[in-house]
């Protein structure tokens, strides 16, 4: 199926959820995955443990397509369950890559769900294959299961710790190990993971919105490098890694997390609205209105309008019933594809100067089409304002970014990009403005960056062991597919 204009967005790899100590563990996991559906729409899976056996259901498609039937939930017996929603960042989604993955290893079964990407996955996979391991998927996640199986340590938790000390990159992991619910977050805290409580049951999730949907109380974030072990209603923590400065992914704040989630103690919606205010201070526009690209541009547009004194107009309607992929059999249909999702309201934009607010620009193809449609609806001028810095570098931590030469801001300077988009003016939020919006008055301190912001700055916080340089100087990516 062809990539379409509707896919001109960054995509998060997946979301994870787990619960232990509740008689409706599987049903609550379904609800949690519904809340995390924005993090992955290509596949979903659940594994449960009933005290004797593991049960798994893995499906291609949306959570609601397969996990709303009571018969499916009844097959997932037990008081502990973990779940996963997936977006494949490389290659084709196939059933054998759908998580949670399960392995029967010494000491009992082990199920695993993973958000992130391991940057030494290719290196470790080659070593494991050389040692005789047989892989059933192309997911980097499976490496963790093989390393845990190979470990000579008797205790199942210690075997996982042994495996995690040998991997690099970004991860938020949830495991089921014979009734234990285990969560782990990478030493820099790049990918998010939170702890909640529902009555006496303990819950792990990628975002707090998954706690809200099951009426669980937020307890705290899992700390960077922390491993938490829940046995029914009790828990304990391990911190086996050297202490490191926290570096959460900045794109969780800019785009990925749901606006109603809480990150670092603050509502995501408020972060994004403040990004719009900073953008208005840095780059005011001579315009008659501020108008968001829905839906992700709405909070920033509200902040921009408030700070600039411009009226806010919802001049673009969005069709919420369109998937991310679309078959494009002809050039004519391809040109019309973007209208499946966005369409301007002529009565609002006709004869007006529009400050168009978006959260980010990736390839630029959708933005170019939207600008053309707004002009076609009668706008006098379109001024593009972007509530994040230019995306200049690819990601290797579980975000689907294009190759470097496909990132439009990497190919053009600001004037060239303005011409490409066809706008009267173009401005991005500065990296300092982004940090100020997130509560750092002095902006980004180069000696002590607080976030993983490599897509903007090129500052990668971990080793990139599997990264190679191609003959033409382009960066090559990793094996197979991200988890």
What does this structure look like?
The protein starts with 10 loop residues before the first strand and ends in a 7-residue tail after the last strand. The protein has 2 domains: 8-247, Glutamine Phosphoribosylpyrophosphate, subunit 1, domain 1, CATH 3.60.20; 266-460, Rossmann fold, CATH 3.40.50. The model is unreliable at 1-6, 324-329 and 469-483 (pLDDT under 50). The strands form 7 sheets. A 7-stranded antiparallel beta sheet has the order 4-3-5-2-11-10-12. It has a 6-stranded antiparallel beta sheet with strand order 6-7-8-9-13-14. The chain contains 17 helices and 25 strands. The protein is an alpha+beta fold.
User: Any idea what the CATH superfamily of the largest domain is called?
Assistant: Aminohydrolase, N-terminal nucleophile (Ntn) domain
Mean pLDDT: 89
**Shape label:** globular
* CATH topology term of the largest domain: Glutamine Phosphoribosylpyrophosphate, subunit 1, domain 1
How many H/I helical runs? Answer: 17
Task: Identify the quaternary structure here.
Answer: single chain
Strand content: 25-35%
Uncertain segments are 1-6, 324-329, 469-483
Q: Could you say what the CATH architecture of the largest domain is?
A: 4-Layer Sandwich
In which order are the strands of the major sheet placed? 4-3-5-2-11-10-12
Total count of strands: 25
């Amino acid at each position: 199926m062809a990539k379409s204009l509707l896919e001109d967005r960054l995509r998060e790899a997946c979301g994870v959820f787990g619960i232990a100590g509740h008689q409706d563990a599987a049903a609550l996991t379904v609800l949690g995955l519904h809340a995390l559906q924005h993090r992955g729409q290509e596949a979903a899976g659940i594994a449960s443990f009933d005290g004797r056996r593991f049960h798994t259901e893995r499906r291609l498609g949306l959570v609601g397509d397969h996990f709303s039937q009571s018969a499916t939930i009844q097959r997932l017996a037990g008081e502990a369950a973990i779940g996963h929603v997936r977006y494949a960042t490389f290659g084709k989604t196939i059933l054998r890559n759908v998580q949670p993955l399960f392995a029967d290893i010494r000491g009992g079964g082990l199920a695993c769900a993973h958000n992130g990407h391991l940057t030494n996955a290719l290196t470790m996979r080659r070593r494991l294959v050389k040692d005789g391991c047989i892989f059933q998927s192309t997911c980097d996640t499976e490496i963790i299961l093989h390393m845990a199986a190979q470990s000579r340590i008797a205790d199942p938790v210690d075997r996982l710790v042994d495996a995690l000390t040998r991997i690099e990159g970004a991860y938020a992991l949830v495991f089921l190990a014979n009734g234990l619910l285990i969560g782990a977050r990478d030493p820099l805290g790049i990918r998010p993971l939170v702890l909640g409580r529902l009555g006496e049951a303990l819950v792990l999730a990628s975002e707090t919105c998954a706690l809200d949907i099951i009426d669980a109380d937020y307890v705290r974030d899992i700390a960077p490098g922390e491993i938490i072990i829940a046995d029914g209603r009790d828990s304990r923590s391990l911190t086996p890694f050297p202490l490191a400065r926290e570096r959460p992914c900045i794109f969780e704040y800019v785009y990925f997390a749901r606006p109603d989630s809480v990150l670092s103690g603050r509502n995501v919606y408020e972060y994004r609205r403040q990004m719009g205010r900073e953008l208005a201070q840095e780059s005011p526009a001579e315009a008659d209105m501020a108008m968001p690209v829905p839906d992700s541009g709405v909070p920033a547009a509200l902040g921009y309008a408030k700070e600039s004194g411009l009226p806010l107009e919802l001049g673009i309607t969005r069709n919420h019933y369109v998937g991310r992929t679309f078959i494009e059999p002809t050039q004519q249909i391809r040109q019309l594809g973007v209208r499946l999702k966005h369409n301007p309201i002529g009565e609002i934009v006709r004869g007006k100067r529009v400050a168009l607010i978006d959260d980010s620009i990736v390839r630029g193809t959708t933005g170019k089409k939207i600008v053309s449609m707004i002009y076609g609806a009668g706008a006098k001028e379109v001024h593009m304002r972007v509530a994040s810095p230019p995306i200049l570098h690819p990601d290797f931590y579980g975000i689907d970014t294009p190759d470097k030469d496909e990132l439009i801001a990497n190919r053009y300077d600001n004037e060239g990009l303005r011409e490409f988009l066809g706008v009267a003016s173009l401005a991005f939020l500065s990296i300092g403005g982004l940090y100020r919006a997130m509560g750092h008055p002095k902006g980004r301190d180069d000696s002590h960056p607080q976030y993983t912001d490599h897509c903007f700055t090129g500052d990668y916080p971990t080793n990139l062991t599997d990264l190679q340089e191609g003959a033409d100087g382009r960066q090559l990516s990793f094996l197979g597919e991200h988890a």
